[in-house]
Specification:
The chain has 233 residues and is of the alpha+beta class. The chain is built from seven helices and nine strands; from the N terminus they run H-H-E-H-E-E-H-H-E-E-E-E-E-E-H-H.
């Protein structure tokens, strides 16, 4: 798969042309960081995200257009003006989605995740903020591959990766994890996140209401640990 590296000089485009282009595409700008270690980490993340987005194509994945590295790291994708699923759900509260709509959205998400997993990719940050509605608000597409990783049998991957409220309990220990600690896990972490999103689609409620993201994640981890301890007796 060829990666299209775009050379974009916004100062030469002029405000009218730049506005017209940005009205058709969406851009994600990643800054390079302030230290050499941070720059190296961000550049690796950028290259990984571009590589994965450029080789997976599906109707329920945001379409990758191109990327450029200088003067800023920029990823250009199709524009989805229908807002995020998070904003949409919030806008209709306290009403619920029609069941048919909720099921159709869930199927869109499931198809996107199935395609990623079939291509050996774990998204690791599935949540309503990363699900974007199409203009007619009848379909959703998965976006943001910044935390996605290729799944391998032997690789140890970083623990506590993603957004706490939607993270699978196997990413946690019942003791505080050291920063950057590595753990074995697989694409089932995305399945857990999908379950949380599905619950939101059906109830239009925030999961673990009344808890912070971190409290919600560790509450789930401790609950499972306690259940496993009871079963082992």
């Amino acid at each position: 798969m060829r990666i299209y590296w775009l050379t974009l000089n916004y100062s030469l485009l002029g405000p009218r042309l730049e506005k017209e282009l940005m009205g058709k595409f969406m851009k994600e700008v990643l800054h390079r960081g302030s230290t050499s270690e941070e720059r190296a980490s961000l550049e690796n993340r950028f290259a990984r995200e571009v590589n994965m987005m450029s080789r997976v194509h599906h109707d329920n994945l945001v379409k990758f257009i191109g990327a450029c590295k200088d003067p800023l790291m920029v990823i250009v994708t199709e524009l989805l003006p229908g807002m995020s699923l998070r904003k949409y759900l919030t806008s209709i509260r306290p009403k619920l989605l029609d069941l048919d709509v909720a099921i159709n959205f869930a199927l869109d998400i499931a198809r996107a995740m199935d395609w990623l997993h079939a291509n050996g990719i774990i998204h690791r940050d599935l949540k309503p903020d990363n699900l974007l509605l199409t203009a007619d608000q009848k379909s959703v597409k998965l976006a943001d591959f910044g935390l996605a990783r290729e799944e391998t049998v032997t690789e140890m991957m970083t623990a506590e990766t993603g957004t706490y409220r939607w993270m699978a309990p196997e990413l946690y220990s019942t003791v505080t994890l050291r920063q950057g600690e590595k753990k074995h896990y697989n694409n089932k972490v995305d399945v857990y996140s999908f379950g949380i999103v599905l619950w939101e689609l059906l109830t239009n409620r925030m999961p673990f209401e009344g808890m912070s993201n971190l409290q919600a994640a560790y509450a789930a981890a401790f609950k499972i640990a306690a259940r496993e301890a009871r079963h082992s007796r």
